[in-house]
User: Fold this.
Amino acid sequence: MFIEVVKSKIHRVTVTEANLNYIGSITIDQDLLDAANLIPNEKVSIVNNNNGERLDTYVIPGERGSGVICLNGAAARKVQPGDVVIIMSYAMMDFEEAKHFKPAVIFPDTATNKLL
Assistant:
């Protein structure tokens, strides 16, 4: 049996930009991607702590060290700069493997989106 478990989580980062005039996705600082074990084009779920919105999109790498968290395209309608979001990805794995799997979970500084 396979189950879906949390693989990566960026807990509580602040949206820096919302760009409606873009094809779609979320741009995330490369430092955060590395720390959370996320890769370009990976599907992520986003939860907006300010308004309860939830959405799925894919990752675009942002400038390393910039702190950028930018929702692009239609997703820009669900956030405002300054909103705090949680970003998660999931993986399918064998039930027994999942019992011992440790996700990459990071807790950046919400004021700067930099790693603590």
